[in-house]
Amino acid sequence: MSDAIWQRCLAVLQEELPAQQFNTWIRPLRLEAGEGWLRLLAPNRFVKDWVNDRFFARIEELVAEFAGGQGFNVELAIADRQQSAMARQRPTPPASYGEDLSQSPAATESAPAGDEGVAPVPAPAIIQSSTAAAPTTTPQRQVEVEGGIRHQSSLMEGYTFETFVEGKSNQLARAAASQVAENPGRAYNPLFLYGGVGLGKTHLMHAVGNSLVQQNPNARVVYLHSERFVADMVKALQLNAINEFKRYYRSVDALLIDDIQFFSGKERSQEEFFHTFNALLEGGQQMILTCDRYPKEIKGLEERLKSRFGWGLTVAVEPPELETRVAILLKKAEQENIPLPSDAAFFIAQRVRSNVRELEGVLKRVIASSRFMAKPIDIPLIKESLKDLLALQDKQVSLDNIQRTVAEYYKIKIADLMSKRRSRSVARPRQLAMALSKELTNHSLPEIGEGFGGRDHTTVLHACRKIKELRDADADIREDYKNLIRLLTT
Amino acid sequence: MASTQLPLALSLDTEATFDNYYVAPSQQLPVAVLKGVATGQGEKLVYLAGRSGRRHLLQACCQLADAQGRSVRYIPAAELLDYPAEMVLEDADLADLVCIDGLSAIAGRSDWEVALFSLYNRALGGGCSLLFASTDVPDQLAIELPDLASRLQSFSVYRLSELSEDERIAALCHRAQIMGLDINEALAEFIYRRCQRDLKALFGVLSDLDRHSLARQRRLTIPFVKEIMSW
Q1: Which of A133-137, A383-387, A390-394 comes out lowest in average pLDDT?
Q2: Who contacts B50 (Cβ-Cβ below 8 Å, separation ≥6)?
Q3: Tens of pLDDT along B64-104?
Q4: Per-residue pLDDT, A132
Q5: The Cα angle at residue B113 between residues A204 and B84, in degrees rounded to 5
Q6: Which of A24, A388, A389 sits opposite B11 (nearest CB)?
Q7: DSSP letter string over A282-316?
Q8: Has residue A32 got a pLDDT over 90?
Q9: Given pLDDT bands bounded at 50, 70 and 90, which one contains residue B32?
Q10: Kind and range of the H or E element at B73?
């Protein structure tokens, strides 16, 4: 009866609304119905509010009309994430669920009736796999553990040690990760990988996870982004399911958490993570954490956490040097089955230097051009397909630009860089700017000297050598240099 | 219920399709890529930069995806800045294709940057394709969250180059043909030289001319156009 009423409402709304409005707002609503009531479940709050503001009055009118004078109660609520996912996979979801749905801790307890209007899910069901899952993602691998909790590993199967390109910049991290994969919970625990964005930390983390799963298909390996940990905890608190949350995260064999700098300033999450951390460590379960900086440098993170992060092994992942960038490009092209001549790989690698993600993005674009134009990849094709990027780089990395960026970074005046002042606060940024000019432009030493207030080329040479020395000896200078390279080349 | 236009352009413009878009030679690759994104057979992370034609192509992409039975979320970021980012992007990754236009508007808005970063992470782990767009390429956006900035770099970036004068005139002829108007190149150039030269304005003039042509039951000629437009 209720179903029929809703179907009639849908037919009318489809007539009345433009197709796109209907498809955007009405079609995603799912129906729950009972005797004398209808509940429409929106996929999220945004859709719910939108429908409520603009269409709900009309929906009520239509329901009243088709109910033939019977009093019908119509409600609008939000479906939980699992229901939405089900809707995506199965356009016509079954009316009831017979399996266990829990895949994240917050979902292990049904929402109490009335909480944001979501009715308790009668009996949850497992999401077996996402039909639209990315080919690189392990199709929702789930492992059952005590208490009926099911772990969703979220490991990306494409990220393995075999597909990781090793170079000087990541050698140590790669070796440490291999050790962890061979001796989980014993070799280095936690393994803390840190470094700039897009340098392969996540890849290594997944590689360990995949290796553990390969060795033991029943291993409970969970990868997640730190933000997800926070979101799950908040949800668990809202749903009064914090014990489930704790049990979930403490019962894994390996917990891999990405970008833990996002815990910064989130005290309650840190507290919870601290206890999880301790429990896992005590239980000999492996933890791998990544961060964009050295643990001690994370602001807004409790000291006790910082100190614990250093209990295992802390390894830096540096930006890849030219040879590694070339090797990465060749490997990616090989994976795509695209012939990439090495001079072409060199050409790209010389121009894209900031991180691996950018390399991947650029290579994808070159491959698309090659396919579209049905031409093999060579330097002229690369120049054509990347002409805007190359033009932008030429425009950006000039002496002027370097001087402006360095001056802004150190909060000094550009005029100071040109001046004869020799105080440390000015001389060091000046030396850095000269070293960057040598590194990032094709200007000769005399040209660079000329650009810095008419200095001699030997002064520039000295600056380059000094900065090289300081980068090895002084973490601050190393960090500044890296940041400036990033600012100037991205 | 009257089918009034929503105040925010959250719904798709059904007029925007690939068929009625004039594809200049320099735009053939981006258009081919977008069709691949729409059908789910192309790249998963695509970024479209440019001014003219961007919105039309994004909407066309969403229309095509929708017609293929794929679920689509179209999010014009600039028009939604006052809404909580987290709420707007919540569960967006459950769609097959999420298309976010106007990324330059969110640059520097930490709530939006974090929400977008989170969407990226969720999408990467699932099957959702992301199509982002803005006037500028990712490197030129003033994104403050380094994690997001680096993620944007993994997108394949395609730039819609500005159309040349000849291409704009060709686009005018193409649109006229779709509208069933008989316009030769000389008349198209005549119109082009006398009004604002962006395509939106040109197409607006074309609609006016169409209306007058129908009302007066006359073919479009230079004298007739001069008369009705008071040029």
Answers
A1: A133-137
A2: B135, B159, B160, B161, B162
A3: 998 898 999 999 999 888 888 888 888 888 899 999 999 99
A4: 30
A5: 130
A6: A24
A7: HTT-EEEEEESS-GGG-TTS-HHHHHHHTTSEEEE
A8: no
A9: very high
A10: strand B72-76
Strands (E) across A292-445 are located at 313-317
Q: What ipTM does the predicted assembly reach?
A: 0.72
Residue reference for tokens 């209907």: A22
Dist CA A345 CA A338 (whole Å): 12
Tokens of A181: 């994969």
| Helical residues (DSSP H) of A123-199, grouped into ranges | 171-182
Cβ distance B1 to A16 less than 8 Å, yes or no, reads yes
Residue partners of A257: CB distance under 8 A and separation at least 6? A223, A224, A225, A226, A229, A287, A288, A289, A290
- Asked if B124 and A134 come within 8 Å (Cβ–Cβ), the reply is yes
Parallel, antiparallel or unpaired: strands A150-152 and A142-144: antiparallel
Please tell me the distance in Å from B141's CA to the nearest CA on chain A.
10
Peptide bond into A93 cis (omega under 30): no
Give the per-residue SS3 of B154-176: CCEEEECCCCCHHHHHHHHHHHH
Instruction: Please answer yes or no on whether B154 and A132 come within 8 Å at the CB atom.
Output: no
Sheet containing B45-49, strands listed edge to edge, beginning at the edge strand earlier in sequence = B72-76, B97-101, B129-134, B45-49, B156-159
- Cβ-Cβ contacts under 8 Å, B87 against chain A: 44-46
- pLDDT band at residue A81 under the 50/70/90 scheme: low
In tens, the pLDDT along A125-135 reads: 212 222 233 33
Q: Which residues pair with A78 in a beta bridge?
A: A42
Q: Give the pLDDT of residue A141.
A: 47
* B3 interfaces chain A, CB cutoff of 8 Å: yes
Q: Which amino acid is located at B113 in the chain?
A: E
**For residue A170, what are the contacts with CB-CB under 8 A and spacing of at least 6?**
A164, A199, A200, A204, A317, A318, A320, A324
Beta bridge partners of B48: B133, B158
pTM of the model: 0.65
- Report CB contact under 8 Å: B90, A198: no
- Whether B126 sits inside 8 A of A133 (CB atoms) is yes
